[in-house]
């Protein structure tokens, strides 16, 4: 039977309890689906203490996570990525004594947190990688504020490598640029969740122009509605009492790329324009490099609002997340940079219309029948809020259309499509191994 080794530094942690991000949520959902359908034998490598599914072989790698990965500084995160890279590569080297590498696909759950792509390829393994985040594109948009595009940065890095100047760069930059370049050189499939990401990846690595950059939108990750939701919903209504105010909801980790500050600044403009009272829930916990300082910034922005009440409920999951979806009138997704938007699809599946920004998957997922796409600026978001809340009686009908769209795109179909592609890799002729061009 074909074997897939699924590697992810964030696998083995509980996404319901830890704000570990969409990549881990997708990873665990893929594992659960494949444990059920059994398209191949599956071995999962992670760092967390919990097996993602009892039906699947799981190995917790000996990588020091020092508590929550989401609390790491940039330097500590880079150290973790290198430790995970080394440990995964050593594990796969040992596995060659038990398995024929050419009959195994190594699936990497992210790019920076992956094994050594070149070394693994030269062992004979077939490889595929999921781009939960294009780290070069993230660097271009978040750190460089769009002053330079991802394809330009990737080209510049290849120039540094050619002139042997890249070796002098900090390891964090090597982790971003050299690691992603190696991924594009050695993986037989690059899996991205949106057509926007595919265009950028192909432009950044022009030798990847065909079907080997595979677009698989994740669809809606929807759990069954539990009996607890009604009780939790009543509790939220008693505690926060909307009193006829429109209820806005945004749900993601607290991190600068998620753009919650843009929404708060938009609501400041809303108040200056004489807008009515609003109740806003910003659900999520501070996570990753700048999370804590960014949360403090958000709290200061929220404190300046007079007619908009802002609540920070922290990380929510399970019945509590369902209840927030049912309490809200409109889901706002103000991200500066987004690969897909899992919570946006969850909100749509729960029957919420969406106001979102022009992130990579927006055009793929949002129709004017049930949502609105605006530029990621306070002014554009404020205009969008005015437009959508001025037709509040239509929001429910828009939410019903959003629900139909989301439920027509269930996650399991995407998981099955990815499984089929991994089997196609094994059925194809192994590539000729070569070192990356300099």
Write a compact overview of the structure shown.
The chain has helices spanning 22-37, 74-95, 117-122, 135-143, 150-162, 171-186, 195-204, 228-240, 260-272, 291-303, 318-327, 342-349, 362-365, 378-389, 392-407, 411-427; strands spanning 3-7, 41-46, 57-60, 104-108, 126-130, 189-192, 213-215, 247-251, 278-283, 308-314, 330-333, 354-357, 371-374.
What would your notes on this structure say?
By secondary structure, the chain is of the alpha/beta class. It has two domains: 3-219 and 412-427, 3-Layer(aba) Sandwich (Rossmann fold), CATH 3.40.50; 228-409, Rossmann fold. Helices cover 45% and strands 14% of the residues. It contains 16 helices and 13 strands. The chain has helices spanning 22-37, 74-95, 117-122, 135-143, 150-162, 171-186, 195-204, 228-240, 260-272, 291-303, 318-327, 342-349, 362-365, 378-389, 392-407, 411-427; strands spanning 3-7, 41-46, 57-60, 104-108, 126-130, 189-192, 213-215, 247-251, 278-283, 308-314, 330-333, 354-357, 371-374. It has a seven-stranded parallel sheet, sandwiched between helices. Strands 10-9-8-11-12-13 form a six-stranded parallel sheet, with helices on both faces. It is globular. The chain starts with a strand and ends in an 11-residue tail after the last helix.
Q: Characteristics of this structure?
A:
single chain, 16 helices, 45% helix, 14% strand, globular
User: Terminal Cα separation, in Å?
Assistant: 38 Å
Q: How many strands in all?
A: 13
CATH architectural designation of the largest domain: 3-Layer(aba) Sandwich
CATH class of the largest domain: Alpha Beta
Order of helices and strands: EHEEHEHEHHHEHEHEHEHEHEHEHEHHH
Please outline the major beta sheet: 7 strands, parallel
């Amino acid at each position: 039977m074909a074997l897939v080794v699924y590697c992810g530094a964030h696998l083995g942690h509980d996404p319901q309890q830890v704000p570990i991000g969409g990549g881990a949520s997708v990873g665990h959902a893929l594992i659960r689906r494949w444990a059920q359908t059994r398209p191949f034998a599956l071995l999962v490598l992670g760092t967390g203490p919990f097996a993602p599914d009892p039906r699947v072989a799981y190995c917790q790698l000996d990588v020091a996570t020092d508590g929550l990965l989401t609390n790491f500084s940039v330097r500590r995160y880079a150290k973790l990525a290198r430790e995970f890279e080394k440990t995964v590569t050593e594990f796969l080297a040992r596995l060659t004594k038990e398995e024929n590498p050419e009959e195994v696909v190594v699936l990497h759950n992210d790019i920076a947190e992956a094994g050594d792509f070149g070394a693994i390829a030269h062992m004979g393994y077939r490889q595929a990688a999921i781009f939960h985040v294009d780290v070069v594109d993230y660097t271009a948009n978040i750190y460089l504020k769009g002053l330079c595009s991802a394809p330009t940065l990737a080209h510049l890095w290849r120039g540094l490598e050619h002139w042997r100047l890249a070796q002098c760069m900090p390891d964090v930059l090597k982790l971003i640029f050299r690691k992603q370049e190696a991924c594009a050189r050695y993986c037989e499939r690059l899996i991205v969740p949106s057509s926007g990401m595919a265009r950028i990846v192909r432009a950044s690595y022009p030798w990847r122009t065909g079907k080997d950059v595979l677009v698989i939108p994740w669809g809606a990750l929807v759990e069954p509605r539990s009996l607890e939701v009604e009780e939790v919903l009543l509790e939220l209504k008693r505690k926060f009492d909307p009193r006829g105010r429109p209820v806005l909801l945004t749900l993601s980790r607290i991190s600068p790329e998620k753009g919650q500050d843009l929404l708060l600044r938009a609501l400041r403009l809303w108040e200056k324009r004489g807008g009515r009272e609003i109740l806003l829930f910003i659900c999520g916990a501070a996570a990753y490099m700048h999370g804590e300082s960014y949360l403090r910034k958000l709290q200061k922005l929220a404190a300046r609002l007079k007619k908009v009440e802002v609540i920070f409920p922290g990380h929510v999951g399970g019945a509590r997340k369902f209840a927030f979806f049912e309490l809200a009138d409109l889901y706002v997704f103000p991200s500066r940079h987004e690969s897909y938007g899992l919570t946006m699809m969850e909100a749509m599946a729960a029957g919420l219309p969406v106001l979102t920004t022009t992130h990579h998957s927006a055009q793929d997922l949002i129709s004017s029948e049930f949502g609105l796409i605006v530029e990621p600026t306070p002014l554009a978001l404020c205009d969008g809020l005015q437009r959508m809340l001025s037709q509040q009686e239509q929001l429910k009908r828009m939410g019903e259309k959003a629900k139909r769209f989301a439920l027509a795109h269930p996650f399991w179909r995407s998981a099955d499509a990815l499984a089929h592609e991994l089997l196609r890799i094994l059925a194809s002729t192994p590539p000729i191994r070569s070192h990356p061009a300099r």
